[in-house]
Amino acid sequence: MKRAREQLGADAGHEALRRDIDIFIRQETQHYKQHQLFNKTLYEAGYDRLPEFERELARDYEGFLRNRSLKFNCVYCEGFETLGPPNAYAYIEREFGDLLQGPTRKP
Fold first, then answer.
1. Other CB atoms within 10 A of residue 24 CB
2. pLDDT reported for residue 96
3. Residues 54 and 45 sit within 8 Å (Cβ to Cβ)
4. Dist CA 87 CA 99 (whole Å)
């Protein structure tokens, strides 16, 4: 989003969009801080593979910024933000039914 805001420049026609991007960035900064606190709890509980997963995600995101277009990155961001809440709700409310149950028979 910072790159998108930079590309908008100081064009007078985009003040509202720049404000929306600034709000989004502030909200995501707070969201990141909450994830870091949660991850700290997981580290302390012995989830020792968490750093491995974090490095994998960091590589993915760095690759997106390096190898994908700004358009792709904006669409990815929107998709992630849009699909996250309903997926979390479905997971928490057990709306996935059998998908969370594990194998019913041995392969």
1. 15
2. 67
3. no
4. 13
Backbone angles phi, psi at 82, to 5 degrees: -75, -40
- CA dihedral sign, ordered 64, 66, 69, 71: positive
Q: Which residue, 22, 7, 15, is CA-closest to 71?
A: 7
The pTM assigned to this predicted structure is 0.70
Per-residue pLDDT of the chain (107 residues; tens, 9 = 90+): 999 999 888 877 889 999 999 999 999 999 999 999 999 999 999 988 999 999 999 999 999 999 999 999 999 988 888 888 888 888 777 766 666 665 555 54
Using an 8 Å Cβ cutoff, are 70 and 3 in contact? yes
3-state secondary structure the chain: CHHHHHHHCCCHHHHHHHHHHHHHHHHHHHHHHHHHHHHHHHHHCCCCCHHHHHHHHHHHHHHHHHHCCHHHHHHHHHHHHHHHHHHHHHHHCCCCHHHHCCCCCCC
